[in-house]
Design goal:
Length: about 70
């Protein structure tokens, strides 16, 4: 897994399969999008990340994924 953060846009991306190309994106929560390829989750984007993920603690995130 690769995690990137862009402070200019305050967005974080968690890539579970960097070689796969997204074929579908689903908003699963406010400012949280999940990318799919061939029915499998390949990544997740979190907007306004500084408000959702603590930089002073070990990050923790819980998301309920929809069934596709």
């Amino acid at each position: 897994m690769k995690i990137t953060y862009d402070p200019k846009s305050d967005s974080m991306y968690l890539s579970f399969n960097p070689k796969a190309k997204s074929t579908k994106t689903v908003e699963v929560g406010e400012d949280i999008m999940v990318d799919y390829s061939k029915g499998k989750i390949i990544g997740m984007e979190i907007l306004d990340a500084s408000k959702k993920v603590s930089t002073t603690q070990k990050p923790s995130l819980t998301v309920d994924f929809p069934t596709i």
